[in-house]
Each structure stands twice: as C-alpha cells, then as structure tokens.
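Bump. Still looking for ATP synthase subunit b structure tokens.
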Amino acid sequence: MDPTGIFDLPNTSLIFWEVVTFLILLALLYRYVYPIIRDQIQKRQAQIEQAIEEAEKTRAEARELLEEYRRQIEAARGEARQILDEARRQAKAQRERAREEAREEGDRIIQRAREEISRERDAALREVRREVADMVIMASSRVIGRELDAAEHERLINEALESLEAEVAGGRTA
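Sorry for the wait, here they are.
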C-alpha cells in the first residue's frame, strides 16, 4: 500500500470511472452540443462581419456623397461668383451708359443754349443796327438839314455800326 493513497486500488477505480465519465461527457458535448454552439458562434461571427462590411460600405458611400456635395457646393459657389461678377459688370456698363447719355444730353442742352444765345444776340444786334441806323438818319438829317441819298445814307450807317461794334468789342475784352 501506498502511504499517500494515490495508487490505492479503490481510489484508482474511482479516478478511472471519473475519467471515463468525463470523456463520455466530453464526447457527448462534442457530438451534440459543440456543433450547435459552433454554428451559433459562426452565425454570429458572420453577422458581425456582414454588419462591419455594411458599415464600411455605408461609410464609403457617405464619403462619396460628402465629396459629391462638396463638389456641388463648390460648383454652386463658383456659379454664384460668376453671377455676381456678371451682375457687377452689367451694373458698371449700365452706369457708364447712363453717364454717357447724361453727358450727351448735357452737351445737347449746352449746344441748344448756345444756339439760342447766338440767335438772340444776332436778333439784338439787328435790332440795335436798325435803331442806330434810324437814329443816324434822323440825326444827320437834322445836322445837315437835308435828305440824304441812298449811298450817303448807307455810308453813314456803316460808320455808325463800325463805331458801335468797336465799343461793344472793347467792352467785351475789358
């Protein structure tokens, strides 16, 4: 007999049957339970892998959409800049046209005013000449005491007008 009691026959048979029972239990578990657990684990692993693949696919699609939206936003900004530039250019052209039209209208008004002034001046000069001629004729008739012929009359009128024009021209330059 073994003093430790490990190799005693009654203990050895108990250990033997415990090992046999354990092996039978393992065989039964391996045969009936393990395949079910393994299948469930594989199914779960496949579901997780599929979920990861779908998440990555969704993430990739989201990135593509984000890039597409960014491109669209940038294109819209570029288009908006073009529209603003075109509007500014058109506004500037419109202002230039309005300035040019105003300048032309001002020039026309000034030209009409100058023409009107010239007509009025010419009319005033004709009136003054006529009145001066009448006064010269009356004055010369009184001084001379007789009627003048047409040539003498014309000469006196021209002298008076030249004298008057010289005075007017002298007054303008002063």
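Residues 110 and 116 are 10 Å apart (CA to CA).

Edit: fixed formatting.
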